[in-house]
Amino acid sequence: xxxxxxxxxxxxxxxxxxxxxFAQMGGPGYMGGPGYMGGPGxxxxxxxxxxxxxxxxxxxxxxxxxxxxxxGVAQVTEEQAKVMAQxxxxxxxxxxxxxxxxxxxxRRGAMYQVELQGPDGQVRTLHxxxxxxxxxxxxxxxxxx
Length: 145
Known about the structure:
Elements: H1 2-25, E1 47-49, E2 52-53, H2 65-70, H3 78-92, E3 97-105, E4 110-117, E5 122-128, E6 134-142
Antiparallel strand pairs: 1-2, 3-4, 4-5, 5-6
């Protein structure tokens, strides 16, 4: 009985270790198996294996498709951010005017925090990312003073 338990424990430990390894790799034939990630066809953007074509991004990963495109796009300037924020305010925040534009460093380039002043002294903050997307930031507030 003792020998059976020793063998069963060794088999269970081996299976647990193998399961962990396959979970980290993604398993055979999926994102780490032969012929997919890092396979000889993947670096050239060619055939990746049976039924799989390499996608537009690096290593056939669809999430990486935009990565190469982002780097060639011209980033928004401070003046453009001011104009975009005012257009946003005209559409969604009637009566608000751009008060100041503050640049700061974002993950992929310069971003801008734009403060808008409302007709009754309210202050709204917008963020403009390097590609021109305008996003509201925080809620309404009043300026002290």
